[in-house]
Design a protein that fits this description.
about 70 residues; 5 strands; about 20% helix; binds zinc ion
Length: about 70
């Protein structure tokens, strides 16, 4: 089962994890996003899509959504 999460950039410079203010949620499966753009430990980060949040639902990556639609056909 995939998990929708904001991608987190880990900065070696500031030692701070960083989320782009306009980042989309991506569907991660086995720590890789379905669109192939991001890799992160989804059990470590707590940036899951808030349940029932309409705004957050609109921020989901279109390519990840399409991957899920394609695999559930
Ligand atoms: Zn994606």
């Amino acid at each position: 089962m995939e998990v929708w999460q904001l991608p987190v950039k880990q900065s070696n410079l500031t030692n701070h994890d960083w989320i782009h203010p306009r980042a989309n949620y991506h569907a991660f499966l086995n720590n890789s996003s379905l669109c192939g753009k991001f890799h992160q430990d989804t059990s470590y980060f707590k940036t899951d899509l808030p349940e029932g949040n309409e705004l957050a639902l609109q921020m989901r990556c279109k390519r990840c959504l399409k991957k899920i639609a394609d695999t559930t056909k």
